Amino acid sequence: MTKILKVSQLSKMYSSGSKNLTVLNDISFEVNAGATFSIVGPSGSGKTTLLGLCAGLDKAGAGSIELCGTALDSLNEDERALLRNKEVGFIFQDFQLLPTLTALENVSVPLELQGANDSKHKALQLLQKVGLEDRVHHYPSQLSGGEQQRVALARAFSTSPSILFADEPTGNLDEETGEKVIQLLFELNKEAGTTLIIVTHDLELAQRTQQILRLKGGKILSNETTKAA
Amino acid sequence: MNKSNLDFSWLIKMAWRDAKASGKRLILFMASIVLGIAAVVSIQSFSKNLEDNIGLQSKALMGADYLIDTPQIPTETVQNIIDSLGPVAKEVSFASMAAFPSSGNNKLVQVRGIEGAYPIYGEFETIPVEASKSYQHEKGALVDATLMLQFDLKKGDSVKIGNTVFPISGSLKAAPGSNAFSATLAPPIILPFDEIEGTGLLQLGSRLNYNYYFQATPGLDIDALDQAIDPILDDENADFDSHHSVSQRLGSRYNNFAKFLNLVAFIALLLGCVGIASSVHIYIKEKLRAVAVLKCLGASRKQSFLIYLIQIAGLGLMGGLFGTLLGLGLQALFPLIIQDLLPFTVEITLQLMPVLMGIFLGLFMSVMFALLPLLSTWFVSPLQVLRVTEGNDSAGRKTSVLVILLIMAFIFLFSLWFLESWRYALGFVFAILVTFSILAAISYAFMWAVKKYFPHSWGFTARQSLLNLFRPNNQTMVLILAIGIGSFLISTLYFTKDILLSKASLEDSASNPNIILLDIQTDQKANVRRVIEEKDLQVLDNIPIITMRVHSINDVLANVIRQDTLSTRDKWIVNHEFRTTYRDTLIASETLLEGEWPVKRQPGDLIPISISDNLAENGQVGVGDTIVFNVQGVLMETRVAGIRTVDWQRMQLNFSVLFPKGILENAPQFTVMSTNAPDERISADLQQELVREFPNVSILDLRQLLTTVQGILDKISWVINFMAFFSIITGIIVLIGSVRTSKYQRIKESVLLRTLGAKSRQILKITFLEYFYLGILGTGIGILISLLASQLLAVFVFNSPFTPSWIPFLVLMPGLTVIVLLIGLSNSRAVLKSPPLEVLRKEAG
Lengths: 229, 845
Description:
The structure holds 2 protein chains of 2 kinds.
Chain A: E1 3-16, E2 19-32, E3 36-40, H1 47-54, E4 62-67, E5 70-71, H2 77-87, E6 88-91, H3 103-114, H4 119-129, H5 145-158, E7 163-167, H6 175-192, E8 195-200, H7 203-207, E9 211-216, E10 219-225
Parallel strand pairs in A: 3-8, 3-9, 6-7, 7-8
Antiparallel strand pairs in A: 1-2, 1-4, 4-5, 9-10
Chain B: H1 3-21, H2 23-62, E1 66-70, H3 76-85, E2 89-100, E3 105-116, E4 125-127, H4 131-138, E5 141-144, H5 145-150, E6 158-161, E7 164-174, H6 180-185, E8 188-192, H7 196-199, E9 208-214, H8 222-235, E10 239-242, H9 243-296, H10 301-331, H11 334-338, H12 352-379, H13 394-419, H14 422-452, H15 460-467, H16 476-504, E11 515-521, H17 525-534, E12 539-553, E13 556-557, H18 558-563, H19 572-575, E14 578-582, E15 590-595, E16 607-612, H20 613-619, E17 626-631, E18 634-646, E19 657-659, E20 670-675, H21 680-693, E21 698-701, H22 702-741, H23 743-755, H24 760-797, H25 807-833, H26 836-844
Parallel strand pairs in B: 3-8, 5-7, 14-19, 16-18
Antiparallel strand pairs in B: 1-9, 1-10, 2-3, 2-6, 2-9, 4-7, 5-8, 6-7, 11-20, 11-21, 12-13, 12-14, 12-17, 12-20, 15-18, 16-19, 17-18
Helix pairs in contact in B: 1-10, 2-9, 2-10, 2-12, 2-22, 9-10, 9-12, 9-16, 9-22, 10-12, 12-13, 13-14, 14-16, 14-24, 15-24, 16-22, 16-24, 16-25, 22-25, 23-25, 23-26, 24-25
């Protein structure tokens, strides 16, 4: 099986005043292409930091990360941005839609960055898929939380990424809406054959992925395969 | 499709999408520079039009191609030159009293006796039109139109000049060689040349001027002719003047004024730019999360930076365009404002350079001043999407320093272009830096002091309003800068006008003259004194005046000095006709600086003289040096015995050259007397009698003159205030911009307070107090700095004591503070009127 993400002996420290704070310590794991993978742990366990490092949003302090066959250490910031645009999709807890762009424009942006000619058409199709065909010209502030997260889903899948990182995708939604969004996420993921990495507190959600990485205090507690595998 | 084309069009598309949703805020950025650009463009365009008009109308301004003028009947040599060149017309002019029998009024006027086809270019504008020609054969007078109105005169009335009564042929609206400015001091009356003799005013000792007007033959090089004959004419106490030199003189005179106005306009623009920098700073700060998202989605640093750069550049371009259009419209008002100060009518045409400059300035200045806040989009990490990180990058700091240096360099180059002197430009940049720094330092110190000595015992609203002054994203510094600079400009202009007017004002006491009598001939002295004393008035001054020119300095002939291009002596010394007097004392306006005065002259010694310090400096003459004067044909060898400082600003007769008694008593001379008339009726009585008995004596009524000077200063200060107005309005726009930019944040806080149970009155009071502190502090500091600047101006430029007026403190400070309060309070209206959630939802959109 092809490994889409290889993390080896990864550590990350932050300095806070005169103190050094180790957020991640000697983390190693691998994720197969097309798999669903979750990272769980209590607050401050380093989940989000790990996600940021794996997605190339930050630089590791020690160790290495290989994403889609490319060592992230060897890339500068713009090269990492290019890699993200080609291979990575994101879903955030607080949606992170561009507030001055409409739903349609938000979904089009990653495609436009790739230079796609039919970005509008593709974006419209995706918004139809997530059930927002009648909200395409609305600004984020005119949409509900669930609708915003559905736009974020459409945006994340717009470039057909190889890997999708989701940071607490239901954290800002009520239970019912959260469930609908998760169902949609898994459906879209299955359809596109994308690798899905979810950071979550929600163990129930984590159980729906094929593999669970448990973190505590910046260290791996366990890396187990679930029944969903 | 080409990738780079796609990139650029996408960047423009993104900039447009974002701008569309941020419309209102961005319009305010643009408005910040519109007025500054309008001010610069209107001044630039008007100056260019003025320059073109002066060039085009130079012949009409002189009325000829060139002229030869002399303060006496031409010597034989000068007459030969005049005859060989073939003058088209000649003129004799002098100041004299005119009496109007129909109204019983008298007035000091400029009499111009004209013969021949003058003006060759341009025309006398008269009512009726035919009077411009008919006055010659009617032996009549053309009388200044304002004077006609003032004394209710009409065609057919009479005017008495000297011994002759002339019928008024028409009213004179405009004439080459006259302008409204000089006409206010001594309005012109034009007479036929042949009739002047009969007035009896052409006597020796009178201050006359003869002009001979010429039309250039085709192909004549006027400048070459000037160079060839001017030295000969100078030796003969005559002068050559061409229409080129008229336009150059006029051009440089107005150019200096335009330079000053340009700087005032430039300050308005800079103020707008500070507004842009501050608004963009807040705007971009709010956009950083979106930039981080874009980077997450794969946008490069360059792309994210360029999206906002294009946005600002587009707004700058629009600001430049709107500002330029407004400026072009405004310049049409300028002729209305300053027409009275100009000797010709200005025709406004579209000037390309100022238009291009306005658009360029809009684009360039807004980009340059926005660059610093825009840089943060380059350095923001995509990780901010997940958590906020502190952008503490040394590369960012280096770039910021570079941008600041770039801004300073641009301000310097731009001022250099305006002022054409690197020293003045450096001075201007330094002054700007000092003023901005003082304001910034005081606002910083204020915030620090509020933090350090926070009045914890104060009530909730007072404490909350103080907290607002130093919270994150506060506008304290930018608001104090904007308000401070505006108040500084206005009050400095106000104080400067005060200084100028106080110098020109008269002390109202019997020992200070308010009437000066000029041109009293030696045989008239006793009788003039008698007339004054019969009115129970006192003769305060009785000063003999003898005119003379420098013949040589330390045996170097005046002509040699004139032609010596390497000589560092100021040329006015050898071209000037000195009016000197003799006395053995120094008066109140004089202080001995070097040498001695009075001097005991030993037999065989050269005549000792005392000279003023400016003459000594400009002529490079010291104590013991010799100067030979040509006293109306007689050479007098003198030795500098003393050097005096002279307070030229005093309203009294001062002299550059002073002779001792016993030398010049028999030289051709006239006398100046002065007196103090306690009221206007006595003054009018005295003037009427003097004009009747001594028609050649000119009377300067200082009361009237001061009213005129005040009127002229009012006109000039109107123009300056008009330009300062741009700074104030720009300041207000910057203020609105700054307040609006932070509106969402402030509303969120106010809504939070409201949600927690704060009453409308409390929210209103917090906002009121916050803007009250800002308004009072900004205007107060601005006026205090202007006090300091005005004191420096008074000491170093005007050499005058300065008593500041309370008007800026009593009118400007409360006025501007109220404006600041109104703008600030309008911000909170939405919070007070609507439920909290509704407000948040509306404002977020």
